[in-house]
Amino acid sequence: MRERDNVCSFGFLAACLCRTAQVRVCADGGANRLFDEMPLLFPRDDAIDVRHRYKPDIIKGDMDSIRTEVLDFYTNLGTKVVDESHDQDTTDLRKCVAYVRDLAPNLDKSNLCILVAGALGGRFDHEAGNINVLYRFSTIRIILLSDDCLIYLLPRTHHHEIHIQSSVEGPHCGLIPIGMTSVSTTTTGLQWDLTNTEMRFGDMVSTSNLVQGEKITVQSSSDLLWTISIKM
């Protein structure tokens, strides 16, 4: 049952993103998942029709994971394929984010939001690479999604107000410093608020906290990862 639940959760997220996103980009391995799992979300519909409705605009990556039949199927539907097999120094997610960023070079990056389905819950090195992308593109709002939670970066350069959608978010949350010590972090709106609190690995980090209201504020001397549970 757990494997089936994971399939449905990924499919639900992908379906929502496909319906609402301005640009739909798949890493090459992600195209396999979209192809295989999306029809499972609509068992009464013809699988080919479902794949036509929920197709990526672009497939980008080093092309080491995508199956031939998946590549051929989406290519025949007009999906653009960007082969970067020459670049083995960056992850597929980093390639995809850079592509979206460069689609509109004059776009105000503060209005750009990239949602990434299937970014968490697999191999840990892949998860760590995806989290690294948040830091590499810290001026772009990138949200990593799993079937259990979401994660995004809170840069130290801003005072953050996080507005909680309680119908789909919470109550469990956390603030995690990665790469450096947070000498001072102050929050409001949490069950266990922080007041000029120092956080670092090997000592205290804020995990298993709880949201108390509809607005959380965070001010920190270092970049933090914000994570909150989501309800599927």
Automatic annotation (TrEMBL):
Kindly state one GO CC term assigned in the UniProt record: cytosol
Main site of residence? cytoplasm
PROSITE patterns to which the protein is assigned, alphabetical = PROKAR_LIPOPROTEIN (PS51257)
Please list the residue ranges annotated as the Thiamin pyrophosphokinase thiamin-binding domain. Answer: 158-225
Listed GO MF terms: ATP binding; kinase activity; thiamine binding; thiamine diphosphokinase activity
Query: According to the UniProt entry, what is the EC number of this protein?
Result: 2.7.6.2
Q: Which residues cross the membrane?
A: none
Keywords tagged on the record: ATP-binding, Kinase, Nucleotide-binding, Transferase
Name the InterPro entries on file: Thi_PPkinase (IPR006282), Thiamin_pyrophosphokinase_euk (IPR016966), Thiamin_PyroPKinase_B1-bd (IPR007373), TPK_B1-bd_sf (IPR036371), TPK_catalytic (IPR007371), TPK_catalytic_sf (IPR036759)
- List the Pfam families: TPK_B1_binding, TPK_catalytic
The yes or no answer to whether the keyword Kinase is present is yes
Subcellular localization, as worded in the UniProt entry? Cytoplasm, Cytosol
Q: Which family does it belong to?
A: Belongs to the thiamine pyrophosphokinase family.
Q: What is this protein called?
A: Thiamine pyrophosphokinase
What organism, scientifically named, is this protein from? Salix udensis
